[in-house]
Amino acid sequence: MSGKTMQNTVGAGRRMNELPWREGLLLLAVIVLVIALPYIFTSGHSLSLLSQMGIAIIFALSYNMLLGQGGMLSFGHAVYYGLGGFITAHVLNMVGDGRLAIPLELMPLIGGLGGLAFAIPLGYINTKRSGVGFAMITLGIGELVAASSLMFTGFFGGEAGVSTNRVTEVTLLPFDYGPSIQVYYLIVAWMLLSVLGMFLLTRTPLGKMANAVRDNQERAQFVGYNPRIVSFIQFSLAGFFAGIAGGLFAINYEILTADTVGVQQSGLVLLMTFIGGVSFFFGPILGAILITYLSISLSNITEAWVLYFGLLFVLMVMYAPSGLAGIIMQHRPVWRAGKLGQLIVPYLVAAVPALILFFGAAAVIEMAYHRSASYDPSVPMELLLWDNVVITTVWPWLFAGLAIVVGGFGLRWAIRRFKAVWDDIHEEMAAGGGA
Amino acid sequence: MFELIVFSIINGLVYGMLLFMLSSGLTLIFSMMGVLNFAHASFYMLGAYAAYQISVYIGFWPALIIAPLIVAFLGALTERYGLRHVHQYGHVAELLFTFGLVYVIDEIVHLIWGRLPVDYRIPPSLDFSLFTLFGATFPAYRGFMLLVALVMFVVLYLVLTKTRVGMIVRASLSYPDMVRALGHNVPMVFTMVFALGTGLAGLAGVIAGNYFITEPGMAWAMGPIVFVVVVFGGLGSIAGALWASLIIGIIQTAAVALPYSLADLFAALGLQLTREAPLADLWFLELARIAPILPYLLLVLILVFRPRGLMGTRET
Amino acid sequence: MSTAALRLVDVHKHFGSSHIIRGVSLEVQKGERHAVLGPNGAGKSTLFNLISGRFAPSSGTIELNGQPIHGLPPYKINRMGLSRSFQVTNLFQHMTVFENIRCALLWSRGYRYSFWHLLGWQKELNEEAEHILERIRLTARRDVQASLLSYAEQRALEIGTTIAGGADVILLDEPTAGMSRTESDQAVELLREVTVGKTLMVVEHDMSVVFNLADRISVVVYGQVIATDTPDRIRENQAVQEAYLGQMEVA
C-alpha cells in the first residue's frame, strides 16, 4: 500500500480535444459546495477556519509548483508568502491614508506582485544550484529574511509587526469587507482564480518542461531547454501565487509579523503539501484542508500536537510518500473495476488494532506531557474517556503499554491480511477485465 | 582591543572545536551516504540530556562515557529502521525524513524533560579557574572541552588513517559507488558511520550541555551553524570541516564581541553617515546584532559561488 | 567541398590525471552514417559526452556544421542541430509517452518558455506529436507513463525524443544495448526509417548492426582513433584486428 515510488501512474488520459464533461460537473459541484459552506457550518469559529483553509490551499498549491511539479525542495517558501503579505499590508495602509486608491478586491494581486518581485532576484540566486544545494540555499535565504525582519524595522514593523485595516472604503463591489463572511467570499473568489491559474499553468509548455526538468535535467537539455531558466521561471511564478496567499492573509488577519516569513511557516506548508500528496494536482488541496483543521483543533485538545504532526509526517515519509492523494489514486483502478467493496472489510479489520495502537500511544504521550508540564503530576488528569487518571501510579502506563503492544501486533497481522486481499484483487483485475 | 582579539581567538577556538565535533560527524554522514542529517543537532541535544540524566543518578564521569554510547545506539536504530527504509525513495525523501525527525526528537525531549532548561552542571572537580589573562579568568572546564575535542580528533584521525575500517570509510567519502562495487557491506558501514557521527554529536552535547545551557531549543541554535560549517568545509573532507569549524568559530565569537558597524567602517574611510541617511537601518547595524545571521549569509554565498567549499572533493 | 557535419580536431580529455581521450581527429560528412567501435573503456562514451557538451574537452576543437561547439552547454548544442540518445534510457519517466514526445518538440516549434499557451489547444503541435508516435510505433501506448513501458518500448521512445526536435546530426549511444536479435533488427529498421537524410554517429557493440548500418567506421582504442574506413576495409585492417583479437568476425 505504500507505493514504491513517490510518483504514481498519471491518470488514464483522454483525447486532448474532448470536452471534460465529468470533470466540469465535478468542478461546478465543488464551487457550489464551497459557496454554501458557511451556511452549513454557521459558527464564527467555523468561518474563520474555512477562511484559513482557503488561504492555505493557495499557499500549498504554490508550494507544489516547486516540489511536486518542479522537483525543487524549498525550505524557505514562506518568504514570498510573508513578504507578499507585508507589502499588501503597507499598500492597504496607504489606501487607508488616502494616498492610493486601489480597491480591496485587487489587493491580493498586489500581494502576488510583491511575492513575484522578491521571487525574481532570490529565485535567480536559488536556481543556481539544484537538489540538496538548492534546498540549503532556500534555508539560508529563509533564515536571512526572517532574521533581517528585526533589522529593517521600517518595513517589518519590529516586534509588533505591521497592522492594517481592510475597511478602506475603496472597493469595486458594494461591500465594506468588515464582516468575516464577506472576507470569506473574497478568499473563495481568489482561491478559485488561483487554483484555476495554477492548474492551467500545468498544461503549458513551461509547466510541462518544469515536469521534464524534474524528471530528467539532462534529457531536458537535449530537447533544447536550459533547465536553469525553466526552474527560475517556475520559481518566480510560485512566488507570485504564494504572494497572493500572503495578501489574503493580510486582509484576513489585518496583522503581519516576522513569523509569517519564518522557517516554521515554511515547514508547515511543506508538511501540508507532502501529506496531501505531491504527485497529483489536488494533493496539496487535501493536505491544506486537513492540516489546517488539525492544527487548529488539535492544539485545543492537546499540548502534544506538534509531536503528533511530526510523527504523522515521519510515518508518511516512510510508508506513504505519495501522500493522501497518492493513496486515493491507488484505489482508483480498483474502484473502476468495481472491486472496491472487497476492501471494506479488510479496512475495518485493520482499523481496530490501528485505533488501539493509536490510543495507546496517544495515552503515553499525553500522560508524559502531563507529567513534565504540570506542577503536581499526581493530580488526576482527563484522558480520553476516563476522568480520573492518576499518572503517578503504574496502572495507566501498563494499560497504555499493553494497548501499544496488542495494537502493534494486531496491526501487523491485519496489514498482512489486507495485502493479501489487495494482491488478489489486482490479480483478478489483470486476469479478467482490468481498469 | 588586543585583549578582545586574544579572548575572541581563545574562546573561538574552543567553540570551533565544539563545532568540529558536530561537523565531523555530519561530514562523514553527508559525504558517505549523501544524507544531510537535519537531525544531527538533535542528537547533540540528546547527548546533553542523557548526560544530565545520568549525572543525576550516577555522576558526570560515567556520563561522559555512557551518554555518547546511548546516542550512538539511537543513531544506529534510526539509520537501520528509519533512514534505510526511506533510502529507496531517493534523496528528497531522506532529507524530509531527517527534517521530520527534528520535530519529533524536539517534542520527545519536551515530553520527558519539559520546556525549561535542566540543571546540568559542570562537575565540581572541574569547576575552577585555570588561569587568568588580562584580568579575565579562563575556566578549567573550557580547557577540558578543548582537551576532549582534541583527543576525539586524534582518535578519529588514527582510526580513519590507520585502520582497515577507517580506510573503507575514507574511500567511501570520495567514491561511495566504487566501495560498494568492491563488495563491502555498505549498509552495515552506513549504519556504523551514522552511529559514529551521531555518537560524536552526542559527545559534543555531553561536554557542551553543562557549559552552555541544556534546554530544548539547543538543537535549533546549533543546527544551522553546523550545516554552514559542513558546506563551507566541503564535501568529503574532514580536514575541511576542521578548518571551517575553527574559522567560523572564531568569526562567530569575535562578531558577537565587536560593537562595530558598517557605518564605523565608512567613517574610518572618511565617509560620515547620519541616521537620516537612506537604509540607515543597515549601515548602523552592529556586528554583534547580525552575528546570528552570519552563518546563513555565508551558507548562501558559498553555495552560490563555491559549492565545493574550502577543501571539498565533490560538489554539494 | 561542403563542411563536414561534425569535425573533431586533436581533441584531448583529462579527468584529473587520467588521460582518457588522447588526440582524436575525426570527420563525419553530411548524411553519413558513421559508427564508432572500440573495446570497453576505450573512451567512446566520453567522446560522445564531449561532442554533446556534457564535458568540455581539455584541448582541441569540435565543430558542428562549421560552428565551434566545444565548451558549450548541451542545450545550446542541441539548438544548433545536434541531438543524442543515451545508453541508459534517459526519458521523462513520470510523463506519458505522448508528453515525452511533445516536450521534445516544444523548443524547435518555437514555444520557448511560454506559460500562456494551453497545450491542449495547440493543434499542429499535437498532430505532429501523434505523427511521430506513429513512426516509432507507440501509438497504442500513448497515455502510458514512460517508466511503465517495456525495455524495447522505452528504447523506441528514446529514439523518438531524440529525433523529434528535427536535429540533423544525431548521436546514438548503443541503441540496441540489451536487445534480443529480433528486437535489434526491428530497432535498426526503425532507426533507418526515422533518420533518413540525417547524419548519424553510432556507438555500437553489435557487429551485425554496425556492418548493416554504417557507411564508415572509426575504431577507438585507448582514447585514440586507430583507423577510419569503410566496413570492408576495417575488417581487413591489421591494427584493428590486433586490437580486437578476432572479435571482428561477424556472427
- Gyration radius over CA of chain A: 24 Å
Structural class of chain C: alpha/beta
- Strand order of the biggest β-sheet of chain A: 1-2
Q: Largest sheet of chain C, if any? A: 6 strands, mixed
Number of domains of chain A: 2
What quaternary form is this? heterotrimer
Flag low-confidence runs of chain C.
Answer: none
Beta strands of chain C, count: 10
Extract low-pLDDT stretches of chain A.
Answer: 1-17
Q: Outline of chain C, from the CA principal axes?
A: globular
| Strand composition percent of chain A | under 5%
> Total number of helical segments of chain C?
9
Structural class of chain A: mainly alpha
CATH architecture of the largest domain in chain C: 3-Layer(aba) Sandwich
| SSE arrangement of chain A, N to C | HHHHHHEHHHHEHHHHHEEH
Assign a percent range to the helix content of chain C: 25-40%
Query: What is the terminal-to-terminal distance of chain C?
Result: 38 Å
Care to describe what's here?
The complex is a heterotrimer of chains A (435), B (316) and C (251). Chain A is mostly helical and 435 residues long. Chain A folds into 2 domains: 21-320, ABC transporter involved in vitamin B12 uptake, BtuC, CATH 1.10.3470; 337-431. Helices cover 69% and strands 3% of the residues of chain A. In chain A, strands 1-2 form a two-stranded antiparallel ribbon. In chain A, strands 3-4 form a two-stranded antiparallel ribbon. In chain A, α2 crosses α12 and α11 packs across α12 (283-301). The longest helix of chain A has 38 residues, at 394-431. Chain B has 316 residues and is mainly α. Helices cover 72% and strands 3% of the residues of chain B. Chain B has 14 helices and 2 strands. In chain B, strands 1-2 form a two-stranded antiparallel sheet. In chain B, a hairpin with a 2-residue loop joins β1 and β2 (136-139). In chain B, α2 (40-57) runs parallel beside α4 (91-113) and α3 (60-86) packs antiparallel against α8. The mean pLDDT of chain B is 82. With 251 residues, chain C is α/β, with parallel strands linked by helices. Chain C folds into 2 domains: 1-81 and 167-251, P-loop containing nucleotide triphosphate hydrolases (Rossmann fold, 3-Layer(aba) Sandwich), CATH 3.40.50; 91-166, no CATH class. In chain C, 34% of the residues lie in helices and 24% in strands. Chain C has helices at 44-52, 74-79, 97-106, 123-135, 151-164, 181-194, 207-213, 231-236, 238-244; strands spanning 6-15, 18-28, 33-37, 59-64, 67-68, 82-84, 169-173, 199-203, 216-221, 224-229. In chain C, β1 (6-15) and β2 (18-28) form a beta hairpin. In chain C, α3 crosses α4, α3 packs parallel to α5 and α5 runs parallel beside α6 (181-194). The longest helix of chain C is centred in the middle third of the chain and has 14 residues, at 151-164. Chains A and B meet through α5, α11, α13 and α15 of A and α3, α4, α9 and α14 of B.
